[in-house]
C-alpha cells in the first residue's frame, strides 16, 4: 500500500492545508516519506458532522452486526501484513517482536469487545413492570438500557503505536459502545496510523455502515486536538499521554458550554514495595528482575516501575547491588522520539541535581541518536516525604529507590503517594500481616494491586483495571484496558410506559436477544 | 426532641461561630426557633478528618452489616414521629400529605439500597484465573471488585426536605457504596435537617460504626459549601439545586489539585410533545391533566413540565383553552422560600416582557406571603429556535407552550433543546410513526423518555433514570434516583496474584457471600 499522507474523513481521503511534517526514524534520525499535512478546523468540522450524522444509525446496530464490524477491523489490520510492522518499527524504534505482539494485542482486543458486545451485559437492562394495583400509588412501567454517549475523540499515544493508537483500546471500546470515533493520530507515527486508519475505513465500507463511524485526522501542534475536544458534536474524549496534555484537555472539556467526560490516562510511577521477608530471602533475585521490568521498552510504559520502597538494611543493600549490576550491564535502547529522549535526559539530570537522590548506577552509553541510558537512584524516606518533585514521573528506564527507616515510614510514604495505575507488593507468606497493613492504602491509591510480579504487562481481560486516582487518570471510576472500558462511553436511559412497538429490542417483553435482565429486582437470564 | 441548632460532627454536637440564622415559615413569614449558626473551616476539617478516619473501616463492612445500618436509619427516621412532619411543614410550606409521602419515599429508598447492598451486584466481581500454560505468554490471576470512592459531600436540596436532603438519595446511595457522608444541610429547613441528622447519628452509634461515617454541617452563604468541596478528604459531591450552583461546584471540584466527580442535578424544563392524533382525540383532557402536573408542589419539581410542543391548529387551540381554564381556576400555593418566590416572579416577568411569549392565562392571586401564581404562556416555534432565553427554567408553576407550523419544526425544536431529565410523548396508536421519528432525538436529549404520562413523579426503583445530558446534570452517565445511583460512588480495583489470605471476601475462591461473578468471561451465579 502506498502511503498518501492524507486525512481519512469518512469514506474520503483529503489533503489538509496545515503545517507539513514527516515521521522520523528515531534510530537514525532520518525523515520518512511521505509528507503529511496538518488538519485544521474545516477537517475537524467535516469529520464530526459525519460522525453526528452516523450516530443514530450506528448506535442502534444490532449486537451481531456491531460485533462483526469489530472483527472485520481486526481481520483488515492483520491483512495489512508485514508493511504495518515495518512502518511501525521505522517510526517508533521499537523492535519487531514488540510490534508483532502489539498487533496481536490490538486485534485480540477488538475481538474481545466483539464478544462483550454479543453478550450484551453492557446494556444493563432493567425492567420494573407496571403495578397498577399498588397502594398507595400504582407503579408505571419502567425500563432501562444504556445508550452510547455520542461521537468520541480519541488521541493516539506515542508509546503503543498500535495498541493505544488508531485502533487501540479507546477506539475499540468506543466503537463497541456504539460511538462513532474521530481519531487524532499521534504525529510520531503517521504512516502506521494511516495504514490502520485505512483498514478501519475499509471495514466500515464492507460492513455497510455510515461513513461517519470513523475518521482519522493527522497533524502536529496542539490546535488540532483543541479543535476536536471543543467541537460541539464530540461527546467524550479518550487520551493516553502526559499529565500536562491530559490535564489541559480535561480543562478544555470542562470549560465547554456543554462539558464532556475526558478519560485521560496520564502519569504513574507505579510504586513497588519490598517487604522484609521477601528481601531476606531473595533480594538479589528481586534486584535483577526489577531492572528487567525497568528496561522493558526503554521504560516507555505507563506501568514502568519508577519507585521502589523498602526498609533500609542488609536486604535492601543486596537488592541495590544486584540492581546496580544489572543497570551497569544494560545497553542503551532507542526511544520513541527525539522529544521524549530529551525530556528523559532532563528528568534524569533534575534527579541528579536534586540533592536528595543519589545515583546508584547508570547503564552503558552510546553515541547513537535518541538513546535511553538506564538509571538507578536512591533517596531517603524522609526526603521523599518532604520533596514533591521526587514523585514526578521520569518517562524512561530510570527508577528511584526509597530507603525507609522502618515499616511505619514505609506506610507514610505509601500514604503520601499520588494516585497510581499500579502498586506492587513483593512478599513472602511471613509478610502477610505487613502487607495487610499496607493494603487499604494501596487500594485507595492505585487501580491495580499486585503481589510478586512487575507492573509492566497489562492483560486485556474482564478483570483488568488500567486506571486509578488522579493523576494516574482524570477519572478513577473506570479503566482504559479490558472489557469494562466500554462503560466509559455509555449512559442510562429510562423508558416509561412506552408502547412495545417503540421500545428498543433489548427492552421488549419478548427479549429477542435473550439478554440477562434485572426484572422487578430479580436477575433473569 | 428539643432542637439545639448545633452542628452534628461524628458523635458530637457542636456550636459553630459563624453567622446565625433561623428558618422562616414561608406561609407566614415568621422566624422559627431555634437559632442556628454557620459552620466554618474548623468544623469542615473536623468532619472530613473523621470521615477519612472512618473510611477504611466503613468501606469494608460486610454486606449484611451495611444493609442493616441503612435499615436502622430508616427505622430511626420513622421513630421521630410527627415532630418531623410538623417541622418540615413549618419550614417548607409543603402540606402534610406531601411530607408524609416524602418520609415514606425516603425510608423506602434506604431500604431499597439495603436490598441492593445485600444482592452485591454493585461489586461487579470479575475473576480471570491464571493460565500458566497459555501461549505465547501465561496469564496471571486477575480479580476485580468495586470499592468506595471515599468521603462524599452531599448538599441538601430545598424542594424535597426529606427525600433529597440529609437522608435523601445522595446520602443513601453513598452510604450504600461504602462512603462516609458529610452533609451540608439546606438553610431553608435546618430543623428538619437536625432531626434527620440525629436519627443517622443515632444509627451510627447503634450499629457500632466509626463516628465519622456521618456528619451534618449547617449554615448560610456559599463559603461552607466551597470549603467542603475543596477539602482534600472529600472524594465526590452530590448536589441537587440550581444550574448556577451546580456549575460553580463542578468548576471548584475540577480546579482542585486532585479533581473529583460532582453529581449535580440542576436544570430541566421537561418538554412534553403532543402528537397529532392524541391532540385530535383528547386535547381538552390533556390540557386539564397538564395543569394538574404543572401545579404539583407549586411547580417546585425538577421534573415540572415547563415546555409543551405541538403543531398549531384546532387540537392545540382546544388544549390551550382547557389548560387556560384550569390555570385560571388555580389557587395560589406557598413556595418554599422567599428567595424562590422572588426568583419565580422575576422569571415570569422576564417571559412576559420577552416580546416572544404571550400570556395565555394566570392563576388566582393572593396577598398571603410567598405565593406562587400559576402561569401559562405560548410562543411560536421559530421564536423558540431563535431565542435561547425561552429555554431557561422557570422554577415554579409556569409553563410555555410552543406552537409549531408542522411536525418538521417540532423535530427542529426537539433537536434545539438542551439536555433534560425527561421528555414526554402524548400519543395514540396512530402517532407511532411520528413518535418513532422523534425518539432518537429524545434519547439523546433526556434521561427518561415517557409516553402518555406526566414527568412529575419519579419512582424509586431499579430502572429509574433521574439524570440526563448537561445542563440537566453535570454527569449524564448516571442517575440520582433509583438503585443505579450507587455506581456514582464506586471505582474498580484489580488484584493480581494476591494470596487468598489478602483478597477481599468478594474475590476469594470460596465466594463466601455467593455473589454473582464473571469468571473467565462466563457469568456464574
TrEMBL record, chains A, B:
Keywords assigned by UniProt, alphabetized = Oxidoreductase
Q: Which residues form the Aldehyde dehydrogenase domain?
A: 17-468
Pfam families noted in UniProt: Aldedh
EC number, as in UniProt: 1.2.1.26
What this protein is called in its record is: 2,5-dioxovalerate dehydrogenase
Q: Which SUPFAM superfamilies match?
A: ALDH-like (SSF53720)
Q: Which GO terms describe its molecular function?
A: 2,5-dioxovalerate dehydrogenase (NADP+) activity
The record lists the catalysed reaction(s) as:
2,5-dioxopentanoate + NAD(+) + H2O = 2-oxoglutarate + NADH + 2 H(+); 2,5-dioxopentanoate + NADP(+) + H2O = 2-oxoglutarate + NADPH + 2 H(+)
Amino acid at each position: 500500500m502506498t502511503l498518501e499522507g492524507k486525512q481519512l474523513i469518512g469514506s474520503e481521503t483529503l489533503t489538509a492545508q496545515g503545517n507539513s511534517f514527516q515521521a522520523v526514524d528515531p534510530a537514525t534520525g532520518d525523515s520518512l516519506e511521505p509528507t503529511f499535512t496538518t488538519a485544521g478546523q474545516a477537517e475537524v468540522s467535516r469529520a464530526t458532522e459525519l460522525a453526528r450524522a452516523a450516530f443514530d444509525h450506528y448506535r442502534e446496530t444490532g449486537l451481531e452486526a456491531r460485533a462483526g464490524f469489530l472483527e472485520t477491523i481486526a481481520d483488515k489490520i492483520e491483512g495489512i501484513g508485514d508493511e504495518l510492522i515495518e512502518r511501525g518499527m521505522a517510526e517508533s524504534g521499537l523492535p519487531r517482536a514488540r510490534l508483532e505482539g502489539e498487533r496481536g494485542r490490538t486485534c485480540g482486543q477488538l475481538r474481545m469487545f466483539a464478544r462483550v458486545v454479543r453478550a450484551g451485559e453492557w446494556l444493563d437492562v432493567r425492567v420494573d413492570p407496571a403495578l397498577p394495583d399498588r397502594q398507595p400509588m400504582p407503579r408505571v412501567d419502567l425500563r432501562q438500557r444504556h445508550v452510547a454517549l455520542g461521537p468520541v475523540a480519541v488521541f493516539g499515544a506515542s508509546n503503543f503505536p498500535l495498541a493505544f493508537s488508531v485502533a487501540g483500546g479507546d477506539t475499540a471500546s468506543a466503537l463497541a459502545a456504539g460511538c462513532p470515533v474521530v481519531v487524532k493520530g499521534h504525529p510520531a507515527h503517521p504512516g502506521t496510523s494511516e495504514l490502520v486508519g485505512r483498514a478501519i475505513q475499509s471495514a466500515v465500507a464492507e460492513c455497510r455502515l455510515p461513513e461517519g463511524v470513523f475518521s482519522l485526522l493527522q497533524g502536529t501542534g496542539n490546535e488540532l486536538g483543541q479543535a476536536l475536544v471543543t467541537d460541539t458534536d464530540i461527546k467524550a474524549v479518550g487520551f493516553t499521554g502526559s499529565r500536562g496534555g491530559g490535564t489541559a484537555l480535561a480543562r478544555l472539556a470542562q470549560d465547554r458550554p456543554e462539558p464532556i467526560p475526558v478519560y485521560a490516562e496520564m502519569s504513574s510511577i507505579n510504586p513497588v514495595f519490598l517487604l522484609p521477608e521477601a528481601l531476606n530471602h531473595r533480594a538479589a533475585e528481586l534486584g535483577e528482575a526489577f531492572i528487567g521490568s525497568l528496561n522493558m521498552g526503554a521504560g516507555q510504559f505507563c506501568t514502568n516501575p519508577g519507585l521502589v520502597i523498602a526498609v533500609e538494611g542488609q536486604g535492601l543493600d543486596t537488592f541495590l547491588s544486584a540492581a546496580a549490576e544489572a543497570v551497569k550491564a544494560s545497553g542503551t535502547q532507542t526511544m520513541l522520539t527525539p522529544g521524549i529522549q530529551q525530556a528523559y535526559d532532563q528528568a534524569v539530570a533534575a534527579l541528579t541535581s536534586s540533592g536528595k537522590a543519589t545515583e546508584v548506577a547508570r547503564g552503558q552509553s552510546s553515541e547513537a541518536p535518541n538513546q535511553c541510558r538506564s538509571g538507578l537512584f536512591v533517596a531517603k524516606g524522609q526526603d521523599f516525604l518532604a520533596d514533591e518533585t521526587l514523585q514526578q514521573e521520569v518517562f524512561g528506564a530510570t527508577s528511584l529507590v526509597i530507603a525507609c527507616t522502618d515499616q511505619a515510614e514505609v506506610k507514610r510514604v505509601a500514604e503520601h503517594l499520588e494516585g497510581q495505575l499500579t502498586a506492587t507488593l513483593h512478599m513472602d507468606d511471613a509478610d502477610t500481616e505487613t502487607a495487610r497493613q499496607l493494603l487499604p492504602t494501596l487500594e485507595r491509591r492505585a487501580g491495580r494491586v499486585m503481589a510478586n510480579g512487575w507492573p509492566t504487562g497489562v492483560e486485556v481481560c474482564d478483570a483488568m483495571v488500567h486506571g486509578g486516582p488522579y493523576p494516574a487518570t482524570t477519572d478513577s471510576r473506570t479503566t482504559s484496558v479490558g472489557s469494562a472500558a466500554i462503560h466509559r462511553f455509555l449512559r442510562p436511559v429510562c423508558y416509561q410506559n412506552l408502547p412495545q412497538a417503540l421500545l428498543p429490542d433489548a427492552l421488549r417483553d419478548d427479549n429477542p436477544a435473550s439478554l440477562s435482565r434485572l426484572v422487578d429486582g430479580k436477575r433473569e437470564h
